[in-house]
Amino acid sequence: MDDLRGKYLAAIADAADESALEDLRLRAVGKKGEVSLKMRELGKMTPEERQQVGPKLNALKDEINSALAARKAVLADAALDERLRTEWLDVTLPSRTRRQGSVHPVSQVTEEVTTIFADMGFAVAEGPQVESDWYNFDALNIPAEHPTRTEMDTFYMARAEGDDRPPHVLRTHTSPVQIRAMQAQGAPIRVIAPGRVYRADYDQTHTPMFHQVEGLALDRDISMANLKWCLEEFCRAFFEVDSVELRFRASHFPFTEPSAEVDLRCSWQGGQLKVGEGDDWMEILGSGMVHPRVLRAGNIDPDEWQGFAFGIGIDRLAMLKYGIPDLRAFFDSDLRWLRHYGFAALDVPTLAGGLSR
Q: By three-state DSSP, how is residue 20 classified?
């Protein structure tokens, strides 16, 4: 045993790498190693011999295993030191130049819209993008036969065969957030609901996923005059002009009564949009007074409270303000496009400092 101890302890101390160390482990204490074979011979010894030899063999095995572990730790430390030496980097040296990140126009315009309406006392409300059929349609007074409820226009979630529960959809507008906000907060209330919405449409000015912001204001004496002032102030601040002129055209939306399309006076001379001047009119949003049935769906008494609602396309606002010709480019992930139309990451929109600095 003394010969085995000396032989293997010396070899372990001289091992140059972990593969040599593993080879020594197998030769010494592996299944067919010399120490393991010696331990098998214990069965052929007398009880007295086993009492003398057994503890010595166990001690030898433990000593060799300890030497192996210690040498392995030394080799690992040496390998780490060598790696740190060869991979050393002076972090005080100037780094490789990189382009600064930019903010997507949709995110920028969302922040601009939020900033403007926050100044008018509107809070931001959020809701799920996968909505129940009730929140997306029924609560908003949209009848069962309405064309928007067909699969040609709306993305319905798959259901298991035999599932009779009402279907879920990818929300077609952020109006369901208004219902949830009314149920949660009651009246009076002033909220906007920005977010993603989904419709089965795709061309230069439509994509299957786009962004909207909808507004809701409820109180005891709110009228269309309040709606007109609110929208005028928004357009004036958003397009950063001194004055705007809006035109309300009678329309029909199931969730408002009366309903109105809102046009903005503008000029397209030379292919450039100028807001607040010229002889052209451009439709920018839909609005109206909240329908009593919608108020009841939000647990609001329509005999006591009334208010207005409106909806604006965030992507469309970005295209108009920043001269972006194709909506589909918003979602192409083209870095060249984003570097051209993107905004500085730290330029937060403010009404005092400017929205689009």
A: helix
Rounded to the nearest 5°, which phi and psi values hold at 93?
-75, 150
Total Cβ atoms within 10 A of residue 270: 7
- Per-residue pLDDT tens over the stretch 336-349: 888 888 888 777 88
Query: In a 3-state reduction of DSSP, which class is residue 300?
Result: coil
End-to-end Cα spacing for the chain = 84
- Read off the pLDDT of residues 313-327 as tens digits, 9 standing for 90 and up: 999 899 888 888 888
Cα(63)–Cα(40) distance, integer angstroms: 18
- The secondary structure of residue 246, as a DSSP letter, is E
| DSSP code per residue over 129-146 | SEEEHHHHTGGGT--TT-
Q: What is the DSSP letter of 63?
A: H
Task: Name the residue among 241, 234, 238 with its Cα closest to residue 112.
Answer: 238
pLDDT of residue 2: 75
The two three-digit tokens of residue 233, written as one number: 């102030």
Q: Is 120 exposed, middle or buried (0-12, 13-18, 19+ CB in 10 A)?
A: middle
- The Cα 76–Cα 58 span in angstroms is 27
Confirm if 163 and 130 have CB atoms less than 8 A apart: no
CA dihedral 45, 46, 51, 52 (to 10 degrees): -70
Count of alpha carbons within 13 angstroms of residue 121, beta-carbon side = 7
pTM of the model: 0.67
| Residue 274 bridge partners (DSSP) | 267
Return contacts of 320-326, CB within 8 angstroms, 24+ apart.
Answer: 320/273, 320/282, 320/284, 321/109, 321/238, 321/239, 321/356, 322/105, 322/356, 323/272, 323/273, 324/105, 325/204, 326/204
Placement of tokens 């990189």 in the chain: 98
Q: What is the pLDDT of residue 151?
A: 77
Question: Which positions of the chain have pLDDT values less than 70?
Answer: 90, 93-99, 203-205, 357
Question: Residue 217 burial by CB count (10 A; 0-12/13-18/19+): exposed, middle or buried?
Answer: buried
